[in-house]
Amino acid sequence: MRESKGLENPIVPSLFSMAREEGLELYAVGGAVRDRLLQRSPSGDIDFVYKGGSIDRVVGRLQKRVRFKAVPFDNKGFSTLRLCFKSLIIDFQPLHVSGLYQDALHRDFTVNALYLEQKQKGLTLLDPLNGEKDLADGLLKETSEQSFDQDPLRILRLFRFASQLGFRYEKGTLRLAAGSVQKLSRISPERIKDELIKIFSKPMQGLLSDMSDLCLFDLLAGFHPRSVPEFPAGESVINLFLLFSENGRSGAFVSFLKAFRFSKKDIEVAAALHLLEETEEEAVIGRFHKKSSWLLERLKDFCLMTRQKGKRERLEDISCYGSPLIDGREAARLFHVSGPALGALMDALHILQIEKRLTRKEELILAAEKRNGKEY
Question: 114 near 121, Cβ under 8 Å?
Fold first, then answer.
């Protein structure tokens, strides 16, 4: 069975059919339904709720037709079964015991509390909280006054959806969110990180100003932004760095990423961005000539976005002229050095090669000999 994303995947009608045959009521809910109604490109995640028995027989039948990994886990107190396919993730949860309306009240926003069930004529929309109207109005509205208390991460999700969907929210929603901000400290760093990445992949100054007004950055980053910069990039780590830098906090950025369990690669980028900010243009080659090619590309992109032409040109020189023309053994023979002095010599030769934009070994040897002999 071929895989595709979202509710268009052929697995979906099979699930509805098998659930019906097993006496279960099955409903698709959440982002997949919302995105279908908005005609957005589908993601690779689908959430289902069910009632009337166990989902295990449906999963067992499906395993005979397609390969996947089944992972049971607890999600905010709800027993969840996750099916992991090559390009699709499906989560099953039991429907709230009191029915669809109560199930909807336990979700984050009304636009994510829309349900689809399979009828003979096709998929039918069920809308317990009038979320379809909010969807048409581009409005993010909490499902209940307890929504942010139930899961404080929904505060960040509010801003994430506003950014991703271009939706608005009302002042009353912000007031409710404000009452639960301190409870964010109970949320795991990994979950907060995931939301921050999504928010800062497409940040909007107005949204970040509202986040600042809620003192979210005070809680998460330890400072209250004086100003919010323009964000030229579609890259979350760079945009986060720009916020820290704009407010004189770039030195704390690496620690912030570590606290929220960002990847080692993200942390390496963060450290390099801070070093680049601290480095004068003339010293860029000396400080960055040993950096890896992928990191140099990220830094060059950053300089392009932030209009740092001089630094970008020097990083480009490292990329173009940074392949060593002389190895350590040959350098030791030519310049009669060894031990720690040889390491210093290799650095000096490499920097000289890049600064002079040399491409031939003979040129480098000649340039080195013309330099003050004490350097080598």
Answer: no
